[in-house]
Amino acid sequence: LTEKFSKSLLRLRDSRKVTEKVVNDVLRDIRAALLEADVDYQVVKSFLKRVRDRVLSEDLKKSLSPADSIVFTVYEELTKILGQQKEDLKKGVVLFVGLQGTGKTTTIGKLAHMLKAQNYNVTVSSTDVRRPAAMLQLQRLSEKVGVPYYSFEEGLSAVDIAKKAVERYKKEGMDFLLLDTAGRLHVDEELMEELKQIKEAVKPSEILYVADAMQGQEALNVARTFHEALGLTGVILTKMDGDARGGLALSVREALGVPIKFIGVGEKIEDLEPFYPDRIAQRILGLGDIQSLVEKVQQTIPEDEAQVLATKVLEGDFNLEDMLRIIRFIKNLGPLEKVLGMLPGISAQLKHIKIDEEKFKKTEAIILSMTKEERRNPKIINMSRKQRIARGSGTTVSDVNRVLKEYEEMKRQMKKLKGALGLGTMPRLPR
Ligand code: GDP
Ligand code: MG
């Protein structure tokens, strides 16, 4: 959630009536979120019009406040547009196209790795004749993955290489030939002409457009040009490990109708994931992974225990036992940074905090080395007790001091948070 967005949601969460104003306010925030996620401007417009019609014509979800109900409708619509969960690749020649630097070559390596793990016979080749370094890059990747790289004598044209590669791939009875192509910094006629000829020559089973999620507002137009020239069968959105929220996914689905097949989440060979529409929908909206958070919360912490904790925080009666519970609770949720990202409203404020899992383990050990009495009443922990605790946990007195200081800080923060949000304002989506 952007900070502005979360504030207005918190404000609206309490209002029970759907007034024109509530709808307008929420949709205005959604609009800002979509634009911030780099969803194409026209796409935002048509999408919101549809949502608005639906919101005004439908009954509200009873379990939700009007604002949440509208947000949920938006979320449902987004997920619907983004399409099915996992799109399989058709066996055959897979052509990779896109601008230079978007991640074509890297993605071929990743996909070869993935397909090989699924026991397919995969081979790769490159038609990027103008940049020998790019061909070498793919060759290296293929060695790393352990799949054959088809190379041919120098001086062949891109189209000739493509033809020869396909001949060999057929002769060897492979399942997939992943074919790399040259990119340019901008769309140009020569590039498109070459790609059309390659397409004609190899009759690909898939033409995958590789797009950089960080590309911004011009990205849809570039994708459209490729789609009109070649007829794309899928999109791979790369660099989703960065700050990009992935609005391009929505744009290409809505405007071009082309499915998103995978997302790239890093530079390593394993960093390719299937496309999960619900996750991307949440990310585009900036709502955080609310649903899975709610599920996880229900799995790891019983309702009444959460209630006890909440009450204690409210009453300012928060001791080291509670801190231990919170630490364990958070640990059970999974990677901390991810968990914080899932907390709507809070994520914006905590973004700058760097979390250290090792430190958490140490903290846990230290609290476990305390007596019950010490945990409940940390004030009694004097120097000799600190020394005993440090020995018991295999740490040092300064580690113990750190934990005590963090406890005080946590107590203080909780009071502040309580004031800022009010407890029990965490939004819930029906499942
Ligand atoms: P190409 O010109 O389209 O073939 O692009 P490359 O495959 O050479 O990739 C360009 C740069 O983007 C390289 O530095 C890659 O490591 C990087 N890259 C590709 N995919 C990803 C991704 O999913 N995440 C991140 N962080 N970097 C990526
Ligand atoms: Mg390349």
Automatic annotation (TrEMBL):
It catalyses: GTP + H2O = GDP + phosphate + H(+). The keyword Ribonucleoprotein applies. GO terms for cellular component: signal recognition particle. It holds the Pfam family SRP54. Residues 259-272 form the SRP54-type proteins GTP-binding domain. One of its GO terms (biological process) is SRP-dependent cotranslational protein targeting to membrane. SMART domains: AAA (SM00382), SRP54 (SM00962), SRP54_N (SM00963). Its EC number is 3.6.5.4. GTP binds at residues 98-105, 180-184, 238-241. It is found in: Cytoplasm. Transmembrane segments: none annotated. One of its GO terms (molecular function) is GTP binding. Involved in targeting and insertion of nascent membrane proteins into the cytoplasmic membrane. Binds to the hydrophobic signal sequence of the ribosome-nascent chain (RNC) as it emerges from the ribosomes. The SRP-RNC complex is then targeted to the cytoplasmic membrane where it interacts with the SRP receptor FtsY. Composed of three domains: the N-terminal N domain, which is responsible for interactions with the ribosome, the central G domain, which binds GTP, and the C-terminal M domain, which binds the RNA and the signal sequence of the RNC. This is Signal recognition particle protein. The lineage of its organism: Bacteria, Pseudomonadati, Aquificota, Aquificia, Aquificales. The gene is ffh.
